[in-house]
Design brief:
Layout (H helix, E strand, L loop, with lengths): L2 H7 L14 H12 L10 E6 L2 H10 L4 H5 L2 E8 L1 H8 L10 H24 L3 E5 L6 H8 L5 E10 L27 H18 L13 H9 L8 H7 L6
Keywords: Flavoprotein, FMN, NADP, Oxidoreductase
InterPro entries: Flavin_OxRdtase_Frp (IPR016446), Nitroreductase (IPR029479), Nitroreductase-like (IPR000415)
Family: Belongs to the flavin oxidoreductase frp family.
Length: about 250
């Protein structure tokens, strides 16, 4: 164990923030740490946009399902996969179209995610808290318009950032045996691991502090997965939206 591992294992999603502003020098260091993340072939196919204007944050909150933490956080970061910069770089030399496929789309999305997670660790090391906001993909075109994103750029997720104003319990994760495999994927014992985790999460949801599902005795992980994925396809509009943004998913 060391301080870095201890910090990583103490991660919690923070949804209530103090009004304390984040100094610009801290925000700069957080983004520089994000830029140090791994990136496939050094393409760096992502961008991040900081939103501080209260009215703009209120609009984002509405687009993301009325998530008040967006309004309360002093900085709302929107992480974007960005192939526009790749196309721009290529056209410095030849007037050609960027050759796309699903792999290139994945590279941009993965790059943005790796950078954002670096930013999370850097922010938490400075005493800040954060929570990812996938809800901006509920209305991706409106978010795109609000950010004035060019073609070949799409918002992957948002991130609320600020000084925590709550102390939620750390959410337990799946048992190691349900995640970590050696040599080959092993299905043996998976149902038992999930059942064991269900009991852990049932107790967590029934007793946790910091709001949420406290007191709901039958809330557990497998039922949460059923609720989430047993209805309509999650954000089924994203495919057509991405095609409209110029991404070629083939």
């Amino acid at each position: 164990m060391n301080q870095t591992i201890e910090l990583l294992k103490k991660h919690r999603s923070i949804r209530k923030f103090k009004e304390t502003a984040i100094p610009e020098e801290h925000l700069t260091e957080i983004i520089l740490a994000a830029q140090a993340a791994s990136t496939s072939s050094n393409i760096q196919a992502y961008s991040v946009i900081a939103v501080k204007d209260p009215e703009r944050k209120r609009r984002f909150a509405g687009l993301a399902g009325n998530q008040q933490q967006i309004v309360e956080s002093p900085v709302f970061l929107v992480w974007c996969a960005d192939l526009n910069k790749i196309r721009t770089a290529i056209r410095l030399h030849e007037d050609v179209e960027l050759k796309q496929n699903v792999e290139l789309f994945l590279l941009g999305t993965i790059d943005a995610t790796l950078a954002a997670q670096n930013a999370t660790v850097a922010a938490e090391s400075l005493g800040y808290g954060m929570v990812y906001i996938g809800g901006i993909r509920n209305n991706p075109q409106d978010v795109t318009d609000l950010l004035e994103l060019p073609q070949l750029v799409y918002p992957v997720f948002g991130m609320c950032l600020g000084v925590p104003d709550q102390e939620p319990d750390i959410r337990p994760r799946l048992p190691l045996a349900a995640v970590y495999h050696q040599e080959v994927y092993s299905k043996e014992g998976l149902e038992d691991e999930i059942k064991a985790y269900d009991e852990i999460t049932r107790h967590y949801y029934a007793t946790r502090k910091g709001g949420g599902r406290g007191g709901e005795q039958e809330t557990k992980w497998s039922k949460e997965m059923l609720r989430r994925f047993n209805g309509e396809r999650l954000r089924g509009h994203m495919h057509d939206f991405l095609l409209g943004r110029g991404f070629e998913l083939k």
